[in-house]
Specification:
Chain A: Residues 159-353 form the ABC transmembrane type-1 domain. The structure holds 2 protein chains of 2 kinds. Chain A contains 14 helices and no strands. By secondary structure, chain A is mainly alpha-helical. Chain A starts with 18 loop residues before the first helix and ends in a 6-residue tail after the last helix. By secondary structure, chain B is an alpha/beta fold. Classes of the chains: A mainly alpha, B alpha/beta.
Chain lengths: 366, 341
C-alpha cells in the first residue's frame, strides 16, 4: 500500500545535468585534456574572428564615392558600393536596367512559386517558366522588338550573366542528361554507343578546353559573315558539358532501382516510356537529389570559367572593376563580395535540396 | 598513304585557308557603316589602357584608339562595340572577323606582324621593362642595382630580359619569383626585395597598390622594347589606313596644339597645317573613304594624343606615368606622325 506516501511533484532535472552549463561541462570541459583543447580552440577562434570583424565592420568605410573616402585601415566597401550596379548587371546600359529588373523579378517569383508547396497551379507555372519565360526574358534583355533598344550580349554581365548561364545550363542539362542516361542503358546498339561516346567525350575534356574551343576555334571553322554569339557559344558548351555529368548521376540512380520494378511494370503491359516515366524515373530522380544538386552547385561555380573567354560574369566583372586605375588595390573587398554572393546562392540551393529530400522521403532512406 | 599526322595538318591548313579567304573580301568600312558601330577588341581589364569605369563605360588609352576610329568613320566616338579579349584569343578574334580592330596592349613583333595575317598600324604606347625601387635606397639608375634582390613574376619574358640585362652589364642579382602580380607587390611591400621589375605601364599600376605609393619610385631606365599598338587584319588596306591615320591625326593634333576644347575655334586658324588637319583646306579623308572632317571629329570628341595620354595613364590619372619616350618627337620622345597634306 502506498496511500500514505505523497507523490513527489515533478521537478526539472538538476542544473548540473541539463541546460547550457551542463552542456558546456559535458562537451567542452570534460576532463583536463578537453579543457585545454577547448581553451586553445577558443584562443585560435579569437585570433581569427577579432581581426576579421575589425577589418570587415569596425574599421571599414561604408560611405563615399571615390577611393579618397577610404581610410585604408579596414575594408573599403565604398568600392563595392560604387560598383554595385555593375556587379549585378555588368555593362548593361544604365537607362535600360529596368528591363533586367523585370526579368530578375520574374525569375525569382517563378522560382519561389515553384518552391513553395502551398501555391496552386504548379503545372501551369512550370510550363510558363520553361516555355514562356525564356522568350519574355530574351525579348526584354536583348531588345530589338517593340521599340526596345537592342542591348548586345557583350554588355550583359555580373550576377545577371552568372544566373543566366547557370539557369540555362541546369534547365538544359537535366533533360539531355536523362535522355543520355536512358540511352546508355538501352539495348539498341546505335543509341547506346552514341550515348556512351557522347558522355565519355564530354567528360573527358576539361570545361576550359570546351570554352576555349567554342570561343577560339569555332569562329575559324565558320564562314565569314556567320558569327555565332559568344554567349550562345558558351551556353551550348556549358550545357553539353554538364549534361554528360548529369547523365552519369542519373544513370547511378537508375541502377539503384531493383530490376523487379521495371519487370513488374512490363508485366502489367506498360510501354517503355510509361515504365520509365511512371515507375523507374520518379524513384530514381528522388534518390538522386543530392547528386543532382551537387552537379548544379558545381555548375553554378563553374560558370566563373567563362571569364577566360572574355565574358564578364560576377567574378569577371569584379576583376575588371579592379583594373580600373581609380580603384586599384581593392582586390580583397572585391573577392570577398563575390565569394559572399556565390555562397548565398550555393547555400540556398543546398538547403532547398535538403528540404526536398525530407519532403519526398518515402522510406528509401538508409 | 596518309597517316594521322598528315590528316591533322591538312585539316588545319584547310581551316587557315578558309579563314584567310573568308576575311579577304568584304570591306570593313562598309560593314562598319552598315552596322553603325566599330567592333573593337580590348583587354579584359588593364589599368589605364582599357577598363570599365564606375558607370560601365570603357576608358583607357587603348579604348581611345577605338573611339578615334569610330569618330573618324561614323562621326560618333561612342559608336563602338567593345569586345573584351584575353591574350590567347585576341588574334583569333581579329582573324575570324569578330573584331575589326585589336587595341589591346599588343607588342609589335616580327612574328605577329608577318605570320598571323595581321598588320600593326602604329604605336600608341612605347612600353618597356623598368624597375621600381623604394626611395630609401637612394638609387637613381639601374646601373647601381648590382647585387640587388629583385621581385619578378614567374613565367614572363620579364625574367629573361632581366637576366640578359644583368649579364650584359656584368652585374649580379638575386631573383625572388612570385606567381601573380598581387603577390609580387606584396613581396615588395614586405621588404623581401629592394627592386620590383615589370613593364613600366604595369609598374605604375603596381605602385598605386602599395600602402604608401610615395615610398617607391620608378627608375628612368628601360631595358626592353615593347611597342604597343593597334592591329588590323591583312588584306583590307583601306581599313588599315583609317586606323593608322586616326592615330596620326591624334598625334598631329597634339603637335599643332589642337585639343578637344579648342578644336571648334581652331577650324578658323590661319595655320595651313591646322586647316588641312581639320578639313578646312582640301579633303584628306577622301582617299580613305571618309568625310573631310574626319580628323576634326576625332580631335573634338576624343582629343589629341597628349590629352588621351594624360587623362588615362599620365598626370591626370592615378597612374601618373611620365610622358618619357611617349612624348612627341620635338619634345624628346619617339611619337612622330607623318604630316597630313
Amino acid at each position: 500500500m502506498i496511500h500514505n506516501q505523497t507523490i513527489i511533484e515533478q521537478r526539472p532535472a538538476p542544473s548540473s545535468s541539463v541546460g547550457p552549463v551542463a552542456w558546456l561541462r559535458g562537451n567542452l570541459f570534460n576532463g583536463p585534456i578537453n579543457t585545454i583543447f577547448t581553451l586553445i580552440g577558443l584562443y585560435i577562434l579569437y585570433l581569427l574572428v577579432v581581426p576579421t570583424v575589425q577589418w570587415a565592420f569596425i574599421n571599414a568605410n561604408w560611405v563615399g564615392t571615390t577611393r579618397d573616402d577610404c581610410s585604408r585601415e579596414g575594408a573599403c566597401w565604398v568600392f563595392v558600393n560604387a560598383r554595385f550596379t555593375q556587379f549585378i548587371y555588368g555593362l548593361y546600359p544604365r537607362t535600360e536596367i529596368w528591363r533586367a529588373n523585370i526579368v530578375f523579378a520574374g525569375f525569382f517569383t517563378l522560382i519561389a512559386w515553384l518552391a513553395i508547396p502551398r501555391l496552386p497551379f504548379k503545372r501551369w507555372v512550370a510550363v510558363f517558366a520553361l516555355v514562356g519565360f525564356p522568350v519574355v526574358a530574351y525579348v526584354l534583355l536583348h531588345g530589338g522588338y517593340f521599340d526596345l533598344p537592342r542591348v548586345p550580349t557583350h554588355r550583359w554581365g555580373g550576377l545577371m550573366l552568372t544566373l543566366l548561364l547557370a539557369t540555362v545550363g541546369m534547365v538544359g542539362a537535366l533533360p539531355i542528361g536523362i535522355v543520355l542516361a536512358l540511352g546508355r542503358r538501352s539495348n539498341m546498339p546505335i543509341v547506346k554507343s552514341f550515348c556512351v561516346v557522347f558522355i565519355e567525350f564530354w567528360r573527358g575534356v576539361p570545361l576550359i578546353t570546351v570554352l576555349f574551343m567554342a570561343s577560339v576555334m569555332l569562329p575559324l571553322f565558320l564562314p565569314s559573315g556567320i558569327s555565332v554569339d559568344r554567349l550562345v557559344r558558351a551556353l551550348i558548351g556549358l550545357t553539353l558539358f554538364q549534361s554528360a555529368y548529369m547523365a552519369e548521376v542519373i544513370r547511378g540512380g537508375l541502377q539503384a532501382i531493383p530490376k523487379g520494378q521495371e519487370e513488374a511494370a512490363a508485366a502489367l503491359g506498360m510501354t517503355y516510356w510509361k515504365r520509365m516515366g511512371l515507375i523507374v524515373l520518379p524513384q530514381a530522380l528522388k534518390m538522386m537529389i543530392p547528386g543532382i544538386v551537387n552537379t548544379f552547385i558545381s555548375l553554378f561555380k563553374d560558370t566563373t570559367l567563362v571569364m577566360i573567354i572574355g565574358l564578364f560574369d560576377l567574378l569577371g566583372i569584379v576583376q575588371a572593376a579592379l583594373s580600373d586605375s581609380r580603384w586599384l588595390g581593392f582586390s580583397l573587398e572585391g573577392y570577398v563580395f563575390a565569394a559572399f554572393m556565390f555562397w548565398i546562392f550555393c547555400f540556398s540551393m543546398s538547403r532547398y535540396s535538403q528540404y526536398l529530400e525530407r519532403k519526398l522521403h518515402t522510406g528509401h532512406k538508409r | 598513304m596518309l597517316n594521322k599526322k598528315h590528316l591533322v595538318l591538312l585539316a588545319s591548313a584547310g581551316v587557315i585557308t578558309v579563314a584567310g579567304v573568308a576575311t579577304a573580301h568584304a570591306s570593313t568600312l562598309d560593314d562598319t557603316r552598315s552596322r553603325g558601330a566599330v567592333q573593337c577588341g580590348v583587354s579584359d581589364g588593364l589599368p589605364g589602357f582599357s577598363a570599365p569605369d564606375d558607370s560601365g563605360e570603357w576608358q583607357g588609352l587603348d579604348v581611345d584608339v577605338c573611339r578615334a576610329v569610330a569618330a573618324a568613320v561614323l562621326g560618333d566616338a561612342d559608336a563602338v562595340n567593345y569586345i573584351s579579349l584575353n591574350a590567347v584569343e585576341r588574334f583569333t578574334a581579329l582573324q575570324s572577323g569578330e573584331v575589326d580592330i585589336l587595341s589591346r596592349n599588343t607588342t609589335w613583333t616580327t612574328t605577329r606582324d608577318t605570320t598571323l595575317g595581321l598588320n600593326f598600324t602604329g604605336v600608341n604606347f612605347y612600353d618597356g621593362q623598368g624597375f621600381m625601387v623604394s626611395t630609401d635606397l637612394g638609387i637613381s639608375s639601374a646601373s647601381e642595382l648590382d647585387g640587388a634582390a629583385i621581385c619578378i613574376q614567374s613565367g614572363t619574358t620579364t625574367e629573361l630580359n632581366l637576366a640578359d640585362y644583368f649579364r650584359a652589364n656584368g652585374m649580379e642579382f638575386d631573383p625572388i619569383v612570385f606567381d601573380t602580380s598581387e603577390q609580387t607587390v606584396g613581396g615588395f611591400q614586405a621588404g623581401r626585395c629592394d627592386v620590383l621589375t615589370s613593364d613600366t605601364s604595369q609598374l605604375a599600376a603596381l605602385r598605386i597598390q602599395l600602402d604608401d605609393p610615395s615610398a617607391a619610385m620608378i627608375l628612368p631606365d628601360v631595358i626592353s622594347k615593347e611597342p604597343l599598338g593597334p592591329v588590323v587584319r591583312q588584306g583590307d588596306d583601306q581599313w588599315f589606313n583609317i586606323v593608322k591615320w586616326s592615330l596620326f591625326a591624334m598625334l598631329n593634333g597634339e603637335e599643332y596644339g589642337v585639343t578637344s576644347e579648342n578644336a571648334e575655334e581652331m577650324r578658323d586658324s590661319d595655320n595651313p597645317d591646322v586647316a588641312r588637319l581639320l578639313g578646312q583646306d582640301g579633303n584628306y579623308g577622301e582617299g580613305m573613304g571618309l568625310e573631310a572632317d574626319w580628323a576634326y571629329n576625332i580631335l573634338s570628341q576624343v582629343g589629341n594624343y597628349g590629352e588621351s595620354f594624360e587623362r588615362n595613364v599620365g598626370m591626370d590619372s592615378p597612374l601618373e606615368i611620365e610622358r618619357g619616350v611617349n612624348a612627341l618627337w620635338n619634345q624628346g620622345g619617339f611619337q612622330y606622325a607623318p604630316p597630313i597634306r
